[in-house]
Amino acid sequence: MKHHYIPKFYLLPWVSDEDGKLTEFRRLTNPHTQVQYIEDKRRGRNETGFEENLYTLPGTTKETKDNVKRYSWAPSMRRPPLPGASCFTA
After folding, report:
1. What's the chain's Rg over C-alpha atoms?
2. At 21, phi and psi to the nearest 5?
3. How far apart are CA 71 and CA 63, in angstroms?
4. Do residues 30 and 76 make contact, with C-beta atoms less than 8 angstroms apart?
5. Among 41, 4, 16, 11, which residue's Cα sits nearest to residue 26?
6. Of these four, 22, 34, 37, 75, which has the most CB atoms within 10 Å of its CB?
7. Whole-angstrom Cα distance, residue 42 to residue 15?
8. Cα separation of 12 and 67, whole Å?
9. 51 CB neighbour count, 10 Å cutoff
10. Listed residue (7, 11, 31) closest to 23, CA to CA
11. Which DSSP state fits 82?
12. CA-wise closest residue to 23 among 33, 13, 37, 36
């Protein structure tokens, strides 16, 4: 599951009107030469700023996971949306 560490609505100012994407820059290392280089790609907001299973709790029971969700995530999800916050649901 994708867990976004950069909320998608934060990325809106960098999204192009032309293609609906932004430019992502990544620093990579060539595994053979150990030389670092910069890669740039056009990506949608769903394709950047996330890590797979970032908030997963490995080695815990389902009950523990449910309790963590109930006590940490649930209160913020029950708040009413801010006026004009339609971009938060994209």
Report:
1. 18
2. -125, 170
3. 12
4. no
5. 41
6. 22
7. 10
8. 33
9. 11
10. 11
11. P
12. 13
> Alpha carbon of 76 to those of 26, 69, 71, 80: distances in Å?
32, 11, 10, 9
The pLDDT value recorded for residue 6 is: 85
> What gap in Å lies between CA 59 and CA 62, rounded to an integer?
10
d(CA 27, CA 22): 17
**Cα separation, 52 vs 49, whole angstroms:** 10
Q: How many CB atoms lie within 10 A of CB 11?
A: 19
Residue with tokens 């006590």: 71
Q: What is the pLDDT of residue 57?
A: 78
Averages of pLDDT over each 10 residues, the chain, 90 residues = 84 93 94 96 91 81 80 60 53
